[in-house]
């Protein structure tokens, strides 16, 4: 089992304020800090299976990182902090560092208030580093990969021809030759909504089975919609009970393609982690707007058990 560490420490003070505090706190002279700089993190193909080379699977939006540091000659791993990309941060530590561990983090449901390390991206390790007081160590642009087995990828729909619509119901239409309109490639899915339709339901016609309640369960999708819509989970509370539908989250309209990370685990817990569930969507058109809900690169992922300290 893989241990995942999650920090709640968030770096929010401007750099000038931090340096002022370091220099003037209680009248004490504190050490000159060293600095770390990072630009971004890019998701790359794993290279061990043709599926991981698919450009649609690699759409991503890594907004932040959590950094841990292991100093040479100690057994301690320090949590440096949780930082929005790009950043330059001051550190009170200096000298030899055995390694820095960089955990890619994402916006849960697109909310900047909920940025969490993503369990499906591999951590990045920078080893044998030296932090020098007054100097900046630049990590530049890092590379991460999906930390997945093929069994973990329970669904992937990239809407590319010549595939047919075998996962969504007939409400979902496919645009198969529109490179300008797609997020990646030439295809995407869309649900037309007219002015007199105030609620339009559509669904993935597949039942997902996850038997271990410790598994992480997330959905990723690329969204460009004229209409607000919800992502829903349909399941039972007990064996033999009636199916119920719970809304997981709502996705706001967007003129541009937006990559969404949707944690299904909290809603799954409402169903007592019942092993079978389905995913549906509802276009919510209270204003009587005419438009489309567009989706691309829809995937559902589970993972081995992980724990939070």
List the helices and strands and how they pair.
Elements: E1 2-4, H1 15-24, E2 34-38, E3 40-44, E4 64-71, E5 77-84, E6 87-91, E7 95-107, E8 115-117, E9 124-131, E10 136-138, E11 141-145, E12 153-157, E13 173-175, E14 188-193, E15 199-203, E16 208-209, E17 217-225, E18 228-235, E19 244-251, E20 258-263, H2 265-270, E21 276-284, E22 291-302, E23 306-308
Parallel strand pairs: 1-23, 2-10, 3-11
Antiparallel strand pairs: 2-6, 4-5, 4-7, 7-8, 7-9, 12-22, 13-14, 14-22, 15-21, 16-21, 17-20, 17-22, 18-19, 18-21
What does this entry look like structurally?
It is built from 2 helices and 23 strands. The protein has 309 residues and is mainly β. It folds into 2 domains: 2-145, Immunoglobulins (Immunoglobulin-like, Sandwich); 150-308, Jelly Rolls, CATH 2.60.120.200. The strands form 6 sheets. Strands 12, 13, 14, 17, 20 and 22 form a 6-stranded antiparallel beta sheet that branches. A hairpin with a 5-residue loop joins strand 4 (64-71) and strand 5 (77-84). The longest helix has 10 residues, at 15-24. It is elongated, with a radius of gyration of 22 Å. The model is unreliable at 1-13 (pLDDT under 50).
**Ends: how far apart?**
14 Å
Judging by the overall fold, what is the CATH architecture of the largest domain?
Sandwich
Looking at the structure, what is the overall shape?
Answer: elongated
CATH class of the largest domain: Mainly Beta
Would you tell me which CATH topology of the largest domain applies? Jelly Rolls
